[in-house]
Structure formats: C-alpha cells, structure tokens
Amino acid sequence: MNKFFQFSEYIKLGKIFNQCTAYLISIEYLDKAIELSSYLPLNKYRLIKAYDLRGNSNMFLGNYQEAIVDFSKALEIDSKDSYLYFWRGRAYESLMDYPNAVKDLKISQKLDPNFGLTKIVLDHIKNKGYQ
C-alpha cells in the first residue's frame, strides 16, 4: 500500500476515533501516521494536524505532559498557530504550571485577539491568584 495513502488513512482514523472519544485508539493511529511521516516528504500542515489531534487525545486522557510534547512539536513546524499555543497553555494549566500556561495563553491571544476562549482561561487563572 502506498505510504502517502497509509498516512492519510491513519490521520482520518485518528480523527474519527478522537471525535468518538475513543482516545486510546485515536492515539494508536496517530502514532502510526507520525511514524510514517519520517519517511515521507509531507505538507507541514498535515503533520501539524497529526500532532494536534494526538495532543488533544492526550489532553482528554489526562496525559498532559504528552500533550505538551505534541503541541510543542507542532509549534516547531508552525509557531504562528494560536490554537496550538492555547491547547499547550491548557495542558500547562492542568499541570498547575501557571507561569507557562499564562505565557502560552498570552501568545495565543496576541496571535488571535478574537479567540475569546483564551481570555476566559486567562481570567480563570488570574482569579486563582496567578498572572
């Protein structure tokens, strides 16, 4: 089977299982896609999608450190994605690493001032006594 086709199918399956809240299965398929990516000259946004989906699956499973790794890898590819900063900030917040959470959330807010959820989370952290 063509490796590009395999990569695409793994991403699709990872997304489907993520949406069905079958996060462990989602991660299995996304792991396979990311492993294949090292052999393929891919569009960078397809690889970002794999890391983003796997990071979100890890978030829902409470694997915050793994999620941070995934969002960080995606941000190495595209450092202008406000949603990746938002989700990594949320992972830091879940680990009670408020300085890094605030840092990422402020970057997210700067990149996309209209992303209102960022302000809500920043206000929530501020109400906890962290800035």
Task: List the topology elements.
Layout: H1 3-19, H2 23-37, H3 44-61, H4 64-77, H5 82-94, H6 98-111, H7 116-127
Helix pairs in contact: 1-2, 1-3, 2-3, 3-4, 4-5, 5-6, 6-7
Query: Can you give the mean pLDDT?
Result: 93
Pick out the low-confidence regions. Answer: none
Please identify the oligomeric state. Answer: single chain
State the domain count.
2
Radius of gyration: 15 Å
Strand fraction equals under 5%
What's the story with the biggest beta sheet? none
What separation lies between the terminal Cα atoms? 51 Å
Helical coverage, percent range = over 70%
Number of helices: 7
Q: How do the helices and strands follow one another from N- to C-terminus?
A: HHHHHHH
Return the structural class.
mainly alpha
The number of distinct β-strands equals 0
Query: What coarse outline follows from CA principal-axis ratios?
Result: elongated
Mind explaining what this structure looks like?
With 131 residues, this protein is an all-alpha fold. The chain folds into two domains: 66 residues; 53 residues. It has seven helices and no strands.
Summary tags:
mainly alpha, elongated, 131 residues, 2 domains, single chain
What's this entry about, in short?
This protein has 131 residues and is mainly alpha-helical.
